[in-house]
Every structure is written in C-alpha cells, then in structure tokens.
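Give me a protein, keeping tokens residue-aligned:
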Amino acid sequence: MKTLLRLVALALLGALLLSALSLSAPERALSARPTLQPTETAVPLTTPTTVPAPPLLDLPEVDWQDVSAHKKAMKPAFADDVDRFVNANRYFIVASLRFEPDAVFRGAQRVRFTNRTGEALDLIVFRLYPNTPALGGRMTVHHVEVNGTKVEPSLSNLRSVLGVPLPVPLQAGESVELRLDFTLVMTRGLNTSYGRFGYVNDVVSATAWYPTLSVYEPNVGWWTDLPSPQGDPAYTEIGLYDVRLTLPSDLVVATSGVIIETRHNGDGTITYRDVTGPMRDHAFQASRRYMITETEADGTRIVMLHYKDCAEQPTDGTKVAMQYAVQALTIFNATFGEYPYAELVVAQNPTPSGVEFPGIVQIAERAWVQGNRFLEVVIAHEIGHQWFYALVGNNQVSLPWIDESLTSYAEFVYFRAAYADPKVGEAYVDNFQQRYTAYLKRGLPDLPLELPVRSYTGIAYGAIIYTKGPLFYVALEQLLGRETVYAAIAEYFKRHKYGIAVTDDVQRAFEDVAKRDLSAIFNQWVRGSEPRISSSS
C-alpha cells in the first residue's frame, strides 16, 4: 500500500474536493475530505534490549505428511487444496513474546524444504527481514541444524541473508529438515516500513518475524537482494505454517490462518496454536488495546480487530469498516475468483496508510472514522492484495507493478460495483488520470511499469506504479472492453493462484482471453520499449 495512500490522502481526496461542487450527491460523498483522528504520540525508542543466546527450546518432532490440521484454515470447498502442498515450504514454529520493555521474541522452528528447483543444491538461504534497513529490528539466529546435525551458517547483506550449508548436496526432489533457534527484538517505539513491523502505541505488528526461506530462481540462484525501504521487502513462496505462539494473557491476537487451540498456562500467558492453508507469509497483530468484532461473507469469517478504547466514540469507524470489507470481499470474489481461506482479519493499526499480508490487512488508525472515504479506499486496496500478492505472488522488490498496479486497478473494480451510480466509478478513475497528467506536465519521467522499486525516485514510485499502473488496465479496457479485461484477470488469477507470476504471465493471460497479440500495448506501457501514443491513451 505504502506510497499509494499518502498520495490518496493528499492528492486523490484533495483533487476530488476541488471538483465537489460540480458532482452529484453520490460523487460528493466519495469526494469528501477525510476526518482523521489525532495522531497518537509514540513512546520514544528505548535502548535495545540485549538478549543473550537462550537455551534451546523444546521443539517436538513433526509428521510432515499429516496436513489435516491445515485444512481447518480453508473454506470447505478449498480444503483439498492443502494436499497439493505437502512438499511445499513447511514451517513448524514455537515462539514466545515478552515485553522487556521492548517486544522480545524467542523462538525455534523446524522447516522442511523440498528441492523443487530441478538442480542439486549445496546451500539453502533464509531471509532475516528484520535486519534490513527497511524494518529496523534485530534478529539473531543462535543455532542451526540440518537433519539433526549442527552446522555453521553464513551471514551477508547486513545480516539479512543467512546461508545454511548442506553437508550433502540436496538432489532435485529430495527433502531436508532444518532447525533454527532465533531471537527477535522490536524496540519499543519502533514503527517502520509504513507500520508493517514494530511495537508502537501498545500494538505489536509481527510481520516477517521468523527466519523465512528465500526463493531459488532457475539459472539465477537464491534471491538475496536488499529491499528498498520505499516498497515491500519480501519475496516468498507459498507454504504451510503450524505456529505455537505464547503471549501474555492480556493481549488480544489475530493471525494469518486460524487459531485452532488455546491453552492457558497458569503463569499469565496463553499459548495459541495457529495453522494456515497454503499461504505466502505468516503475520499476527497483538495488543491489550484490541477487541474483536466478527461477521461472515461468502463463507469467510471477517474479523475486525479494533481498539476497545475507541469503540464507544461516536466517530469510531468499525461499523463502516466492516461494511467496506464485506463489499470488497464479495465484489472481488465475483470478479476475480473465490477467496479460499476461512478467515480474513482487518486490523486497526498505527500504520499511516495500510499494509497487506496473507489473511490479514493493517488499516490506518487515523482513518478508522465513520464516513471517511479514505478508509474505504484503504480497505478495498488491501483486501484486493489478497488476490494479487497473497494468492498470486511476485517479486515485490524487482517487479512491484505485478501486484501493486493490479491491486490499484481493483479499486476501480470496487467503486464501480459498490455504487449504483456509474458516475462514482467514473469520477474515481478520472482522478487517477488527472493526477498522472499533472505528473507528466511537471516534466517528470514517464517511466515504464516493469522496473524494480529502487528505479523510481522521489514521487515517481507512487505516480508510476500506483497511478499509471491502474490506468494501463483502463487502456486495455478501451482496447478490449471491460468484460474482456475482467475475464482476463480472472484467468490470470486461476492460472497462477498459489504461484509466482512475472510480466509475461500477465500478457499471456490477456492475449489468450482476448485472442489477439497485445505486444504493442504491453511494450508501450509496461516495458517502455515502444513510444507511448499519448499521455491519455
């Protein structure tokens, strides 16, 4: 989400406000300036807690062939999808969270990795995302085993890349079990990467909180790039997660996946067992400030995780946030293909914008206000990411357009479907065109969409990926018709659900549905290898 919502807050709503006098009543509702709650004053960063190497945790053996628990995280019609991922990346994690006063995680994980690369491997790479400048935490791996034998890993790229040497090369199709014991410190007051990771205002945003398997690319090798702080930091494959998480008993928690067991330990802590279906990452939100409100839509339980200290305020946005979430889920189910998971969490959060994770989205606490269309935009966009990033994955560092541009276009899909008056959707799309035209008139570079995050400097990342990107799909509508575009996106989702996509995959889906060569328009907008016809094409 990130740069998008800063632009939305300042440019989208500001521009719509300027034209509000000429709009109809529904359009004026869409254009209203958002009412934002006062910003809480974050506790200043503390001196980071020093965490010595802890004793090894008790880590039970795992029957990797048994995936029955993971089916509980799926809607019944999709439970059998789990069977396809017995040999996917598998995580069994035992971890605890304590406040000392920083948020300190102590954990251990068994990871089963099956070599699906087609090549023999002598190294397996994990990403320690908290150690990147984008996140600013401190993760230490204290102990590593390969099939029960202790090994010494290597560290590189600011300690964010951990290489685990294999005593014997792992042949294609073979599996190996690894054990990693780790600690993670989130300094109190830490709130980085648009709020995706940190401990601020008594809220723990635990994302990328465990050592995560990297992606091995054929003819390239393990992905080890250092992410740009401007965009999303992760690039991961689908896996199955079984997590045993021990938290102070006064915290309310919501997770990726479904909590299937709860154990009160008698020492002021509770251990939750959380399992997922096939998911790209695991994340959770926890705070003593949270309360839960639930509803159901299309067979999925929607969990609103919101502040109980704000729940009685007349401006509290929980009711309308629920409405927007239900609308977004049902619209995207009907348009793109069905969301397969049993649960979706929408969490009020200190983020200044909104951030997406599989099965859970963070929504700006300041926008959590009744009647705030900024709140509607955030929720529509982040829930759209459940299709494009969570289910259809991509390298978010080198190809951010794959998920962000398509998810921004999903906002157009949402507003067209959510409002009976077609002028509402038209006004929303027109505003993107006005913003993009204004960007070009400033003489700023009209960069292609298919560039890595770090290639877009200044405001170019937002203007190109989040504004030009969705307008590319509007250009496809003008060429092919809206119904064909919707059908092509649904076909793309069907083909690459649970997988990883690149630009050619998007183009092939559109060409197969449209039954025509679309190289020219993809080259003009996406690859930048042919001249643009005009700034408004």
